[in-house]
């Protein structure tokens, strides 16, 4: 059933996809906004929008699962604000939004700490086989087999950060505490940070034992971690990805992992989520995570608040709390 | 078949249990030492020792799996050195060894970094549900169920270190990189370290969201983490144990985890290893690890070398490389 129609004079917020924060927004702010949900309707999306969303000025959309295409925008003549619940914006058509003069509010740096925490967790997990050990014990194998396979030392390892923005910097800070030696590749050298900079990603890979992918997905970063980078990283090298799946050539990654041409991988993101290559399911040196880097109880409380504040600001003609302004990236 | 008898004039090293490093010691140092292995014999241990180990001056014993009792020592009249492959010495009867004037060489600080790394890995894993997420993806549940449960934030958490020795200090250093607030309980206050000291363990627990147990097992620390400490920690509290299983009242821990009276646990050690309470096998907020905190490829290379160096030193009447001298603890 469609949730169209007006509840008094509440401002209307169109919701596409299934944002994690929607239930808490609805429970806390249903007296402030009216949420219009095409997902509750049997109508095809574009037909729903053309029928019920003509006056919608604000749109809420999660970071994954649905692309905000021109076809959708064409059905939303009144749209002036997109609020997205992610920090990455690869699901938005930025030039198109700019052309239409639609503002964007996003999660900003809300998730930085959580993503960095998980990146380090995945790295430790791959090297020290934490998930595989948990399986070994929980399947009752320990008493009979006794010896579990040896892990690899983290402390002192050469770690390459791919993308030294906010998240990458936090990952580096954490890994310094483990005595790791940090270097990085990024669009630009960060003169205020003490780590060696490699303008060439292959050179970074050749000088590191693990790469941690912390950048966003853009035309430039798509499949940036390709065969050549993996060759440079070497057969003992480890890849951790908390950026976006398509930054890595996943087919090549899977092939090398299966054939033992990479040391291991810790992946929170995939090219075709939630589909994950099944060939990885039996590998103890591969830790798979269902795109949860930003998902903590605490971050969802913060995000609910932030989305509401951005919507409030917009409907009161005040400046957005976390506007996205760098349309060039 | 017994491995008794002499290979030329090589000094004899009796081996009890199954030290991880034995294969690499044998492959690298079989021209330096003769390893006498009761485990290869069908004879009962004490009978083997009385028949074949009367002249053994040095003994190699792992840190887990076998207790070095007076009954064993009574069968070894020539024994002057125990080399153990662990840093914890709870499997040795220290007063008895001192009385018999038997020296001890141990692993010293060789494992400090690896143990601290795993402690942090277990904490992240419990809070961020890394192993549970890996299971969720590898069992193919993600595409149909879509949403995995939310984790808990690590960054900013109040973490209590139980036992601020070498390992505890390294854990604290790592967690500072995550923006955690560290406090600790220890036998003595460490005036050179900046963290708040709680002489009362219950008070520490009451002021923390997670406890990381980094101390050794002694008469004083046995079941130190008891019901009262768990109550003080609270129903959202997390316990990570990389010390020894018996420091925790395991029965009480299991009961509270099952009944939801604790937030979670990351356990590398257990009271009756390798037996682990099966009631924990289905809990997503419990990460179980088969006592591998010290086990990395790199540490085993270092340990093989260290054991050989201690044996060389002993048989050449030189000072041990890593003697254990604090028999009081």
UniProtKB/TrEMBL annotation, chains A, B:
Similarity annotation: Belongs to the D-isomer specific 2-hydroxyacid dehydrogenase family.
Segments forming domain D-isomer specific 2-hydroxyacid dehydrogenase catalytic: 52-320
UniProt entry tagged with the keyword Oxidoreductase: yes
Stored Pfam families: 2-Hacid_dh, 2-Hacid_dh_C
EC number annotated for this UniProt entry: 1.1.1.79
Protein name as catalogued: glyoxylate reductase (NADP(+))
Superkingdom as given in the UniProt entry: Eukaryota
Swiss-Prot/TrEMBL keywords: NAD, NADP, Oxidoreductase
């Amino acid at each position: 059933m469609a949730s169209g129609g007006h509840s008094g004079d509440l401002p209307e917020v169109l919701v596409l996809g299934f944002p994690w924060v929607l239930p808490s927004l609805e429970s806390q702010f249903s007296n402030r906004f009216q949420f219009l949900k095409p997902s509750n309707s049997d109508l095809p999306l574009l037909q729903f929008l053309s029928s019920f969303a003509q006056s919608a000025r604000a749109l809420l959309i999660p970071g994954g699962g649905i692309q905000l295409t021109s076809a959708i925008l064409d059905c939303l003549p009144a749209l002036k604000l997109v609020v997205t619940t992610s920090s990455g914006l690869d699901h938005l058509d930025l030039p198109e939004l700019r052309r239409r003069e639609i503002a964007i509010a996003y999660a900003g740096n809300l998730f930085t700490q959580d993503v960095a925490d998980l990146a380090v967790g995945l790295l430790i997990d791959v090297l020290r086989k934490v998930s595989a050990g948990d399986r070994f014990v929980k399947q009752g194998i320990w008493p009979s087999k006794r010896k579990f396979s040896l892990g690899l030392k983290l402390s002192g390892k050469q770690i390459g950060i791919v993308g030294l923005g906010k998240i990458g910097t936090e990952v580096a800070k954490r890994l310094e505490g483990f005595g790791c030696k940090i270097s990085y590749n990024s669009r630009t050298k960060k003169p205020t940070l003490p780590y060696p900079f490699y303008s060439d990603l292959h050179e970074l890979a050749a000088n590191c034992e693990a790469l941690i992918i912390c950048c966003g997905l853009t035309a430039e970063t798509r499949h940036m971690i390709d065969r050549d980078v993996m060759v440079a990283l070497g057969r003992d090298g480890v890849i951790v990805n908390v950026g976006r799946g398509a930054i890595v050539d996943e087919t090549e990654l899977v092939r090398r992992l299966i054939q033992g041409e990479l040391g291991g991988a810790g992946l929170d993101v995939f090219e075709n989520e939630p589909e994950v290559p099944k060939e990885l399911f039996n590998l103890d040196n591969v830790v798979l995570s269902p795109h949860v880097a930003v998902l903590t109880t605490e971050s969802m409380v913060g995000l609910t608040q932030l989305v509401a504040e951005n919507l409030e600001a917009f409907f009161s003609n005040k400046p957005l709390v976390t506007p996205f302004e760098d349309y060039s990236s």
